[in-house]
Each structure stands twice: as C-alpha cells, then as structure tokens.
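Researcher: Here's a chain I'd like modeled. Treat it as a single chain, no partners, no ligands.
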Amino acid sequence: MGDLLQPMHLLVLGIVVFLLFGAKRLPELGKGLGEGLRGFKEGIKGEPAAPTAQQNTAQPSSAPIEPK
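Model: Modeled as a single isolated chain. Structure tokens:
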C-alpha cells in the first residue's frame, strides 16, 4: 500500500483527470480547490476568511432597481 503514489500512478491519474474534465475546466477546478484549502486552513487556525472578489460581487443589492 506504500507504493500507491508512484510517478507512473500519478501520470495515469493526471491523464484520466484531463480526459474527464478537459483543458478548459482544469484551471477552474484548481482555483476552486486552492480557495477551499485556503479557507479550510484559516478555519483551523481560527482566523476569519478574507472575502474574495466573487463573494463581494455575489451579494445582491438591497436597493430596488427602478425601471426606465
């Protein structure tokens, strides 16, 4: 069981992931994984997570939109 992460296994795993998700989705998945890990680490330390640009723009405005 100790030889699970050999270079050949990692190469095959990388090829399978590439085929499943494609080249366009991989950067998006990597970014999401990185942000999730960062939030997890900050949660363990007890520090509040810094808001990201997506969190700031995702909040709806409380002011009603008037039709023109």
